[in-house]
Amino acid sequence: TENTDVPIIIIGSGYGGAVSALRLCEAGKKVVMLEMGLNWEKAGIPFSNLLKPGKSSAWLKKKSIAPFMNIFSLTPFTGILDRLDFEHINIWVGRGVGGGSLVNGGMAVTPKESYFREVFPDLDAEKFYSHYFPLVREELKVNVIDEQFLKDCPYYKFTRVGEEEAHKAGFKTMRVPNVYDFKYMEKEFRNEVPRSALNTEVIYGNNYGKNSLDKTYLRKALETGNLEILDLHRVQTIQLNDDKSYTLNVQQIDTSGILIADKVFNCKKLILSAGTMGTLQLLLQSHAENNFPVHEKIGKKWGNNGNFMTGRNWVKPLSGGTGAKQSTIPVGGIDNWDDPEHPFFTEIAPLPMGMDVATALYLLINRVDKKGEVAYNKASQSLTLNWDESNTAKMKENAQYFIRKMNKANGGTRSHLLFNNGFGADICYHPLGGCVLGEATNEYGKLKDHENLYVLDGSLIPGTIGVNPFVTITAIAEYCIENLIKQNEFA
Length: 491
Ligand code: FAD
Fold this sequence. Notes:
The protein is of the alpha+beta class. The chain has one domain: FAD/NAD(P)-binding domain. Helices cover 26% and strands 22% of the residues. It has helices spanning 15-26, 40-43, 113-119, 125-139, 147-152, 157-168, 182-189, 217-223, 275-290, 389-410, 470-486; strands at residues 2-11, 31-34, 81-85, 90-94, 173-175, 227-230, 233-240, 246-253, 259-272, 302-303, 308-313, 332-335, 344-349, 359-366, 373-377, 382-386, 413-414, 423-424, 427-428, 432-433, 453-455. Helix 1 (15-26) packs parallel to helix 8 (217-223), helix 1 packs parallel to helix 11 (470-486) and helix 4 crosses helix 11. The radius of gyration is 22 Å and the shape is globular. Bound molecules: flavin-adenine dinucleotide (FAD). Residues 11-16, 34-37, 92-96, 99-100, 103-107, 203, 234-235, 273-276, 278, 282, 429-430, 457-458, 468-470, 473 line the site of flavin-adenine dinucleotide. Flavin-adenine dinucleotide binds at residues 11-16, 34-37, 92-96, 99-100, 103-107, 203, 234-235, 273-276, 278, 282, 429-430, 457-458, 468-470, 473.
């Protein structure tokens, strides 16, 4: 077995990992990043679109795993989208150099300040809104669509219809910023450059236009010369050594998932940025198998960020419709957060099926009043999730209220095309929590009961943030790593 010693290891190349890597490398530290997914830029393999799922569409699966309408069989490949199935909820995650930024819709939303203060009462909100949020919006290249282009572009009929209907039903709408380069999209529309968002590319990757992490934080970190990224390296378990350093058992795989080499890495400092589910799996599995110390708060305060999908069909499709051609990048939202009875935010989501299915799709984000808990089952070697219909009851009530109000004003029925009963309570894109900042960790993400271990990813957020989470994950990672470096944790 190959045995390697390095000073600092980061596990995972999503938002938390990419931020940590950049700031450590800028401070002159040598960093090795282990990522189980593929480096797609280096591999030079194009991403597939929604209508023709190929290599990038699923992590080692025989069938595609889009949230609905999966009719495609696949040859297993280390694709960028994975789904973790639990009894009452399915959780989608990104795999590959760039993590979730490869598969996500790019919606870059800063949380409402009042809710941020409620979720993180101990953080200096003023500093976040004056410094960290503006900083990450710049680093992530967040921009907004031009209103005239939105008005004229046939690919955004779904947004225009969605907003009109929302206004008719008495809801307030908002423009949603994104990391997709809207100037590029305008050129796509004029056929001056290859199409991506206008060619049904999104959850299986965007070949152009989207500023995913490989084009922002990770590129900058690599340019320092201090970062080495090892892809197709999956960390299995972690051991704590007597001298308080860590030993990682790592499997290197090929693109069909076959084991190529067992490797051992030793490091003085370890940063877990494997995403909420990945980080919890590493901690809890290592605890079960290696007596790895974990604090009692680990696994607690997990939530789905209030994710709840729903849809509507029109009674008379010919009179309405959202368009056969749709951009994959959402730009509109309905903001009902300040309603004390039914607080929610919903994305007016595209459904680019290549035909007019006369269906409107919505991903609601609700408060999470009842949190879940994550544990580990040694027999099945997998995570278990204490989460059922009782956790999503209020979210369902909000979705019912929303659909009823929309249908009353605009006509239409609950969508049975997309979900069994019209509701997708079990679809989760935003797993958060389980390793909450200031509870399982100190105020900057250093794990309790450890001297050289840090968590920097979505698991720091206690299950809810009220909007799509990556802007917040990035800002919290910036805040933590800045302070950890200041405190000479990596000296
Ligand atoms: P991740 O981005 O999940 O990165 C973790 C990385 O660690 C992954 O690359 C993974 O492969 C790797 N890893 C895990 N375990 C191991 C291991 N044992 N060894 C080695 N590597 C490992 N959020 C928004 O804000 N806006 C959106 O529009 C949006 N749309 C979404 C759409 C979809 C389909 C999905 C799935 C998510 C979406 N999200 C969106 C959510 C967002 O992408 C995630 O919240 C975010 O990526 C989480 O960041 P992270 O740093 O916690 O970890």
